Amino acid sequence: MSPDRFIDLVRVEQEPLRRFLLALCGGDSSLADDIAQDALVRAYVASGSFLGLSKFSTWLFRIAYNCYLDHCRRPKLESITPDSPQALGVSSGDETDAAFKYQRLYQALERLQEREKAVIVLHYFEDRSVKEIASILQIPSGTVKYYLSTGRNHLKSILQ
To answer: Is the pTM of this model over 0.70?
Structure first.
């Protein structure tokens, strides 16, 4: 795949990918952006191996989800110092869209299992079909339906 073609395809998927990662990261836009950047670098490096057997968006979201899982597996080495922007509650204007509007929903999503959360976000935030979600997460369609059902029930009980 040519670099220009890759850039064109990424432009189309950039915002949906960011929303997906933002929801997985509990509204932490800087973390979502870091993971997105890592995913895009990995995708660019691997773009020559993209065979077109699935949609580009499915392939890209799978890479992003793997990057997110890699982040979750890493030991938490960073700490917040008393005078850091996070500790002081300072945020950029871009963060207000997620941090304040959807804070309760993001907190509820954080209480779900990782797979439930990913399925709920892909289906309801990104309007992905069961088949696409199954391809992105590399699980059977029946399992996607199961996670949709249990995830909805868990969210309902958390938000009540």
So the answer is: no
